[in-house]
Design goal:
The complex is a heterotrimer of chains A (669), B (198) and C (337). Chain B is an all-alpha fold and 198 residues long. Chain B contains 12 helices and no strands. The relative contact order of chain B is 0.11. In chain C, 43% of the residues lie in helices and 9% in strands. The chains are: A alpha/beta (669), B mainly alpha (198), C alpha/beta (337). Chains in contact: A-B, A-C, B-C. The complex binds flavin-adenine dinucleotide and iron/sulfur cluster (4 copies).
Chain lengths: 669, 198, 337
Amino acid sequence: MSDQKQERVGVYVCHCGTNIAGTVDVVDVANWAAEKLKHQGVIIAREYKFMCSSLGQELIEKDIKELGLTRVVVAACSPHLHEKTFRTAAKNAGLNPYLVELASIREQVSWVHTDKVVATAKSKAVVSGAVSRVIENRALDEIKVPINPNTLIVGGGVAGIQSALEIANAGFHVYLVEREPSIGGHMAQFDKTFPTLDCSACILTPRMVEAGTHPNITLLTWSEVTNVAGYVGNFHVTIKKKARFVNEELCTGCGICQEKCPKKVIDDVYEAGLGYRKTVYTPFAQAVPNFPVMDKENCTYFIKGTCKACEKFCPTNAIDFAQQDQMLNIDVGNIILATGYDLFDARRVSNYGYGRLPNVFTSLEFERLSNAAGPTSGNIVLRDGKTMPKSVGIIHCVGSRDKNFNNYCSTICCMQGLKFAHLVHERTGATVYNFYIDMRTAYKAYDEFYQRVLEEGTLFVRGKVAEVTDAARNDREKGKLIIQCEDTLAGKQRRIPVDMVILSSGLQPRKDAKEVGKLFGISCSMDGWFTEKHPKLDPVATMTEGIYIVGCAQGPKDIPSSVAQGAAASARVLDKILQKEVSLEPIKASINKEACSGCRICNGLCPFNAIAFIADDMVSDINPALCQGCGTCVAACPAGAISGTGFSDAQIMAQIDGLLLKNLEIGNY
Amino acid sequence: MPQMTDERVRAGMNREEDPSLLHEVSMKTAGVSHLEMCIQCGTCGGSCPVAMDMEHTPRMLFAMLRAGMREEVLRSNTPWLCVSCYHCVVRCPQEVHIADVMYTLKGMAIKAKLYSDSTAPHFSQTFVDMVEAYGRSYEMGLASRHYLRHFPLRLPSMMPMGLGMITKGRMTITPKKIKHLDQLKSILHRAKQLELTS
Amino acid sequence: MNKYLLYPGCSMDSSAKAYMESLNEILEPLNLHLEEIKDWNCCGATEYLGINLIPAYSLIARNLALAAKQMNPVNGTGGTRTVVAPCSACYLNLAKADYYMQERPTLGAKVNEALAAGGLEYKAGTLDVRHLIDVLVYDVGLDTIRSKVVRPLSGLKVVPYMGCMLPRPDYQHRWSDHEHPTELDDLLRALGADVIDYPLTTECCGGHMTQIGPETAFELIRRLVADADERGAQMMVTVCPMCQMNIDAYQNEANHFFGTNYHMPILFFTQLMGLAFGKEPGDLGIGVELVSARNALANIGVEVPVTQEPAAPRKKDEGLPMPRRWTKHEGRKEAVK
Ligand SMILES: Cc1cc2nc3c(=O)[nH]c(=O)nc-3n(C[C@H](O)[C@H](O)[C@H](O)COP(=O)(O)OP(=O)(O)OC[C@H]3O[C@@H](n4cnc5c(N)ncnc54)[C@H](O)[C@@H]3O)c2cc1C
Ligand code: SF4
Ligand code: SF4
Ligand code: SF4
Ligand code: SF4
């Protein structure tokens, strides 16, 4: 190294307030670097309270210009946060941004250690590694690629619909993919929405219709995304459009087929298991689109080979038993995931008796029960289908805030429990009890709604319900459901006999959230919700550029927040589209043709299909536009012929030597 | 500072609070007690089959532990009524080892001589004495000694049952002993010198 | 042959000798071999834990240490690391000591320090502690059990009473559910009995309260017996000596206390297995219960088997559909997660 031209390296150690300086002796680290790494070219080492502040950045820019620095190491937080900041600073001062390295001494040192001596020593090693590495860095140029202005939105609940409309109204094309026969999501199942009690269908249907008829929206219902390739600006997506067995061109949505279909099955999705549907059906009257789908699993014709009642009666000959699944390929620049939530399976809390005791209902069942378009035409009745309850107990936190099930607060179920209390009171005059641990009614007009329900005479009991049982201990309890709990404010165990129990079940990630996350290259939190880029400052973006998450797919939330996120992500997407092009990290792999033996091992391994075999030269080659710099091929090549820019062997080996302090002159440490 | 009037004293205004109580109980409990995680939800008090006879529900007892009310907690009949049914334990949303905490409190109450009714502590002690003497429990000796001491008036009504048990051969008249009683004794002797504190 | 180590527990040769006798009768037909842990001692029931913690756990751990020493006989035909306890309280104590010694390593270390004074040691996790019914349902299997039935118990209306300490706290996720486990139901059904859904199946029998606060215990006994009676049961079936003792021996006192007149016999499940396998009642300890099971047992074999009622035609106003019941399979999967 000594015979080469020596680089001029500047080292900048950040205090990050007390975040780093509280555990690491930053002055010592800077002095040490100036002295011990001098032989490697460190000509200046400074420490500063906040390197990321404009003063901190100016400090670096000034040194680059005045001292002629050719390399910069910033020992601060994780590169996730500020790599871009310091690279931009370098660029402003005329230094190639890729000649800057971040040494993470916050996330990887000060936040994970308590012993100051050890933490300081480790910081020195991390800095030393970064210095050795940065010397091996090469100047790189950003790659600019054009952005496809089309957007894919997955999930047509209220959040996805909002995103779609915002982008479509701005004049860009949207593909809205929904796996159910209609868009609408959970909101389409509700009767009233808290806290204002607007009719859910009345406010949602116009949006659904708008989305269904918008010239800029291609609506793909009964469809699912099966493959995603490419990167921000240039995603290639494969969509499976499941056979509806109804020709959408011919169908007028008259509904005669549904009427004539002789086969009735329990509707587990839209009616939450509380009602029936036909095997050729639209889930509800206002469905968008309003062409039916045929449920092949249950259709008599598909099972027994005879029936075809629908075909006989369809006035436009739209029924098509020969229809096949279709695979569509589309190109989009950005993707928004709005896949929503599943309801917690209340059968798991066996002490609440759901599934065993007929008159225990879940929240979604109650929504259908109270919905004028539901199986009981909005009559709140017991499972026998006719008796009105005289007393109702509503249990909060079912499956939420419980280490045995989900350890988080589902956010909406307190308000939803209050909504139920109001509806029961209004429609049946029954005595209503709400059992809660804490009443969580934050946000605008929510606590006022709580007070309204208090005023209506709902009896609140502070205590998590212990069990719901039909084992009566006395005549008062005979034939009733008994809710046993501790009234923690009265300090007494109580047994309250009621006719009906409603479980305010929590929200949980979609059953397939992990697989969907994988498909789109994003991760899930421990609880299973999609992980946002930053919990406070970047709540709708993800770690994968060009992929956004909105609504309950990101975590439990109410309709207003879901809608707000839907709109927020659209703003981010429009920003990208209007930039017309995006700069990509120039971190790519390339193959040294001389070294390549033509074994083709790498070809099948690339997850982005970026490697092709050039038969003429008998070597493999990487398409830089497709390569994402993941490094799979680099590690796999038996000939060591592939190297990744930004992650060359020389860089990595130098960094390891640096970390191990092998770069220090013997006896110098 | 206002003078402590008798009323204020009686109202507990000068109660000594012991902020270390919660931690102490947690540490002395087998397993990882999670006692400090209690969110006062009342699932335990709601689940408990004997809550009707308890002076404090388990939840309330844990609030008192937090409040450092050492005497009141150790005098409470609650731990002694616990039948170890583990209903509260499996339902507790915070995985508090409630039944084990009850055992800890019993042990602490015995050491501090703070229980209000001696029936339960004496029963446990009698049982333990039998086990230490024979290595096995001895229902006959246990029942007769215990009932004579605590429920002499109930003995007549118990007689038919006791007799039934004996005539049906379900109560042995002589205790059984294990072979290596010495070994057990030295283990227990050593164990008694040890305590769980951290 | 299925081979296990047996921890019988103190009551098996006194108050619950019917349990032991009936267990011995069913071993051979099920091809089970139980080898008693040599010189085992009392597990301390629920009493020792309240007096002094480390001695209590050391008392239990001596049994585990002895069992671990015995688990691989030098020239035997394959050892076993499974300890079977027929008593729920013993099962829980053994399982709990094994579990807590791992969860709280300080506890494990102290207990071993005490064991060392007796020349013993126990490494937590060495053994698998299981209850008898667990082994019968999951190792022997319901199919095998069903195949041994020569006298189906049809016509005998029973409530399965699991008791509290068996399915809870369930450190090793062995049971289908903590509140409404189905193992005993399934087993009794395999014997042909008419099993009545019993929501109180895991409620407490009163435990030691019969000794120290009888009135509290009487109330717990009353709840159990009254509900079984209300549901038309001819007898309760138990898996635990303490439950059997409390419900059987104290039922009359409880009747006396509340002015009721229940007559609800309670037998061990092994006794019913023996009967179904064609064994003689006398060999199964039947007759030593204080609340006699004679009348209830008169139903076995003499009644014509109930035939399946034809499905009623669907009425117009058929009410709303019920959710599917939570199955054991789903339950197990969640628990292992
Ligand atoms: C019983 C109950 C009552 C409620 N009441 C209220 C209320 O009164 N007021 C209020 O503000 N909030 C209420 N909420 C909350 C409300 O439901 C949510 O805030 C809202 O529905 C979230 O909308 P979303 O679009 O994020 O998700 P969802 O409504 O779940 O929509 C997601 C959509 O994505 C589709 N999808 C999922 N996965 C895929 C996939 N892989 N491919 C394609 N499509 C997919 C689904 O089919 C669905 O259509 C209530 C919740 C419950 C459970
Ligand atoms: S009958 Fe034909 S036109 Fe009418 S909804 Fe059915 S498929 Fe469409
Ligand atoms: S919102 Fe209310 S009911 Fe729902 S989990 Fe949170 S506290 Fe419980
Ligand atoms: S159940 Fe658990 S969290 Fe709730 S009050 Fe009892 S100990 Fe506390
Ligand atoms: S374990 Fe004890 S405190 Fe808990 S419910 Fe049972 S008796 Fe009550």
